[in-house]
Design brief:
9 strands, TIM Barrel, about 30% strand, eight-stranded mixed barrel, 5 helices, single chain, alpha/beta
Length: about 220
C-alpha cells in the first residue's frame, strides 16, 4: 500500500508559516525531515562543523501535532575529517527527544565541489549504518538518486547496500529507476517533484511566497 508524504522537510523549505495540518489534510502521512547536516569549516577543530537542522525540533513537533509521522534523516558528509562514528553519534544525540519507533535514514549525495565521495567515504558510510542499526535494532534506509548510486558503484563494491532499504530520489519521471544493487521496484520510498500553483500542501519558500514546486514522496509498505 502506498502512502503520500512530504519529501524534504528542512530549514530550506519551512518556516513559521508552514502549515503541516494543511499537508495532512491533503493526505500526507509522513515526512522526511532533516535532523543533522554539516556547516562551515571549524578551523579550531580542523573539520566541518556538525550541526542540527535549525528547524528540526520545531518541524518534528509540528508534524506530530498534525498527525504526520516524521522520518528523520542525516545528511552524511563524505569528507575524511569526519568519521562515520562521529556523524552517527551526533545524529543519535539529535534524535534523543524523539524516542524510537521509526526508520532512521541517511542522505547520500555530494554537495557542491568540496564534499566529494571516495571509496574511503563509502567505508565511513558503512560505519555510520552499523552504529545507527545497533542503536535502533533496525536497518537504516539509504536515500540517494540513481545516477549517484551508479557513481558510487564505480568507486567501490557496494553490493552490501542491498541489505538496506532504499529511498530513491528521482524527479520529473513517471516511475523511479532503481539502480544496482537494489532490484527493479525495490524501493520503500520515492521522492519526486510536485508542481502546483498555488501549492496546497502548506509549504512556503524562504521569502514566504508559495514555491513553484515541492518534493513529495510515496512510501511502499
Amino acid at each position: 500500500m502506498y502512502k503520500l508524504g512530504l519529501g524534504d522537510v528542512s530549514e530550506n523549505c519551512t518556516n513559521s508559516k508552514t502549515d503541516f495540518k494543511k499537508a495532512a489534510g491533503m493526505g500526507c502521512k509522513f515526512g522526511l525531515v532533516r535532523a543533522t547536516t554539516t556547516g562551515i569549516w571549524n578551523y579550531a577543530l580542523g573539520k566541518p562543523t556538525m550541526r542540527q537542522d535549525v528547524r528540526f525540533g520545531v518541524n518534528v513537533d509540528s508534524m506530530k501535532a498534525a498527525g504526520i509521522q516524521p522520518i528523520p534523516y542525516c545528511w552524511f558528509d563524505p569528507r575524511p575529517q569526519l568519521t562515520g562514528l562521529e556523524q552517527a553519534s551526533f545524529y543519535l544525540n539529535a534524535l534523543a527527544f524523539m524516542g524510537f519507533g521509526y526508520m532512521p535514514v541517511v542522505d547520500v549525495e555530494n554537495s557542491g565541489s568540496v564534499a566529494v565521495y571516495t571509496a574511503a567515504s563509502i567505508q565511513r558510510l558503512h560505519i555510520w549504518l552499523d552504529v545507527v542499526e545497533a542503536a535502533f535494532h533496525v536497518k537504516p534506509a539509504i536515500y540517494c538518486y540513481p545516477s549517484f548510486v551508479d557513481r558510487l558503484a564505480s568507486m567501490a563494491d557496494i553490493g552490501w547496500m542491498s541489505a538496506y532499504p532504499f529511498i530513491v530520489a528521482h524527479w520529473d519521471v513517471a516511475a523511479p529507476r532503481v539502480p544496482f544493487p537494489w532490484y527493479p521496484g525495490g524501493w520503500i520510498g520515492w521522492q519526486y517533484t510536485a508542481y502546483a500553483a498555488p501549492l496546497p500542501y502548506g509549504f512556503v519558500s524562504a521569502d514566504s511566497k508559495p514555491p513553484s514546486r515541492i518534493c513529495l514522496a510515496v512510501w511502499n509498505d
